[in-house]
Every structure is written in C-alpha cells, then in structure tokens.
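Input record (one chain):
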Amino acid sequence: MFATTNLEQLRALSQRRILRRVLTGKDLIAIGIGTMIGGGIFTTIGTGVKGAGPAVIISYLLAGVTSFFAALCYAELGSMVPIAGSAYTYAYATLGKLFAWIIGFALIFEYGISAAPVAQQFSAAVQDVLKTFGIVLPDWAQQSNLVIHGNWWQLSSWDFLHSQYDVVGALFVIGLSVVLAIGIRESATTNNIFVVLKISALIVFIIAGASLFHIANLHDFNPMGWGALKPFGGAVESTQPYGIIAIGAYVFFSYIGFDTATTTAEECKNPQRDIPFGVIGALAVGTVLYCATAIVLVGALPWGQVPIKNPLVYALAPLHMPLLNWVITMGVLAGTTSVALSSLLGQTRIFYVMARDKMLPPVVAYVHPRFQTPVITTMLTGFAVAVLTLIVPLNTLLNLVNIGTLMAFVVVCAGVLYLRRRRPDLPRTFRVPFVPLFPLLGIAFSLFLAVFGLSRATWIWFALALALGLIFFFSYGYRHSNPEDIKPEVSDVLPDLA
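The corresponding structure, as predicted from the sequence alone:
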C-alpha cells in the first residue's frame, strides 16, 4: 500500500510524446486563471460580505496566503516530476499508493465536482440575459433541486416529478466536454479568449467602482468577528457562514484551480520551466484581482446593503450606465465558461494518469490517435458532471470542493518535506524557500481552514465518499497497480503530431 513510483522512471516517462506538447508558460497561467477566476469570485463575494462585512478582504487574504504556500510546493514538485496528474502523481512518488489514491479521489472534488456548481452559475447568468428579451424557461428547467421525501439513501423517497432540473447547465457541460475531446490546442485557445474577457470585466468593475469609493463604508470593519473558532464550527450548507475564518473557508472556492497547470505537464513544451511559472503566475494575478474587487465593493456600498446575488452589478447601479452591467454580465459568462472548461480539463487528465497507473480500468487511459486526447474519459467525466449539474443544488457541493482541495494541499506540502529529506540529490529547477517553514505553514493553514472553517456535516460527507472510494481501491486499484510497471516503453509512443 505504501509502495512509491521511481522518480527517475517518472522523469523518463515525461519524455514520451503520447499527448501533444503545445502549451507554454503563458498558456499555463491562462489555464490556471481560467479555473481560478470566474464562478468563485462572482458567486462567493456577496455571501462573503454578508458574513464578514468589510473584513471579507482579510478572508480573501487568508485563503490567498494558504494557497500561496501550497503553490510554492506545487511548483517545486511540478518541476521535479513533470507528469500529468498534479497532487496525485506527487503523492504516488513520495507517500505511496494508498495516499496517491486518497488524493486522486480528493481531486475529484476539486476538479470534477467544482465544474457542476460553476455550470449552474453559467446557467443562471444565461437565464438573466434571456429574461431581458422576455424569454423565461419553465420552472422545472430553471435550476437544480432534487426533491427527496424522507431518507436520501432510499430511492423510493426521490420525487423526480416535482423536482427541478438545470437543463442549460447540463447541456453546457456536455458542450465543453466535446471541445475538450477535440483537442488540447483548441481548448487552450478557447480558454485564453474567455480569460481575457473575464479579467477585463473585473478591471472595468474596479475602475468604475473606484469612483464610488467612500472610506466611511469601511467603518465597523469587522462586525462579525473571527467566527465560532471551534473545530468543525463552520456553517452548515443551508445557513449563512459568518466570521473571518468561516468566510475564509467559504471564499477559498475562489482560489481553487491555480494548480490546474500541473495536470497538463505532459502537454507542455518545457514543463520544468513552464509549470512553476504557470502556477505562481496564476495565483499572483488572481489574488491581486480578488483583493482589489473586494476593496472596491465594500467601499462603494455599506456592507449591509450588498446583495448576495449579482453584487457587482448592484454596486455600479448609481452610475446609471447599462453598458457596465452588460460588461459585468459578459464577464460572468466568460468566467464561468473558462472555469468549467479548465476544471473538466484537469479532471480528465487526473483520471487519465490514474488509469495509466492501473488505479482505474485501462480503457480510461485510451488516447484518440487523431485528437491525441483521452476521449473516453473526457466524455464520461462530462456526462457525470452534467448529471450533478442537472439535479444537485450548488450549496450542497461547494464545501465538498473546498475540503477536497485543502486535503490535497496538505499532501503536496508534505511531499516537499519528504523529498527534501529523502532525496536531496534530485535536480530542482524551482525550490521552495525557507524549508521546512513554508511547507509546514502550508499544512497548518490548510488544516486550520478545513477544521475551523468547515462544518461537521462537510467532514462527514467527505468521509463517507472517501470510504466508498477506498472500497473501489481495494477491490481494483490495489490489486492491479504496480509502481514498477510505470516504464517509458517505446511501444507506448504515438507519433508526435504537434
């Protein structure tokens, strides 16, 4: 269970040309920003202000500092082990097969599940645009809400007839999956366009909203305090979180995705250089934009007047410029599109690597000879996420996404400490400074947010899902996977069509 992959074999494996090597460092920054900026900031900031007041700025900084320490560790491991798979691959190389599976399973929450609520946000924005033209979807097709009478584990209690379904969101996911299946170059280009659009929207808000800034609105900066400050004291999914800590764990969803760059390591032209550049660059750009947006929002309005829905559009209303509202709306559409696209991209690459390691059935790792993408796993993932988008409400998913990501951060930081001690001789094109301090701070901040910012119910759901994942691991992955089988055999190489 604790057998690890050979790092020399992994480095040799990275030289194979099964996937198209067409991505540059700039592409990786765009992919990281594509996953990071979008659905999170546009959705969480309203709830964040309600729960922390102007101190939501501190909450964003807290989540950003946590991500910063993890980003440094991702950059070092990504430059050492330039293989697709992100934290899963790093765990397999450092802590062993069992931990690799656990992290691979946790990353499903970060990438796969996170695409579903983002798709729902896209659907809501599209429906708002349609309403301006007098087009309103039937009630049953507007949003996801599976009605259950009684216990959820009894299928007879599920009332499909009176439930609601997010049809637009589900179709949106299927469409993005087709784009991903066509090819990585086409996906990256599409993503880059949407990244430019949504960053432009945030910059427009910051510039326009700055004219409405009043320092008096920052009075009573921390009205809700730090929060419950007890283990598992975060708000349950159905209530408003409050306090800097709980809101920090809530808005952490906005930072998820900067590490998506590491999942495309085998599609980079120069992964040792591009991965650190992409990971740290994406986080830096995102953190600056988040804090600037939060400062402008709480300065433009008294925090008690900030609505949960469409807070950026509401804040600019005194300017009486409808064009600004359309710019922000287009930013929401572009942002949610690029986030969902990048999340699905990251999830399919993780499944691809796990299947190649025989943790999953080999059909999952099939690469299309023309498109040179894992077509089967891409479409299966898209279908599964579409189902989640169709029936599961957003609030039920958000905290599971956060806890899965925070656990992955812990393992990545621990992996840096392990390799610095056991393999100090390995070449590192990027090195985390102040080791062991920075990796230890990454572990401490991640556990702090997870334990004190998330609810007991979130931990229970995560534990139940993990238990099911371990059942599959011991019934399939444990018996079939063997670290020594991961070899760069010539027979596996496909023609380089880049």
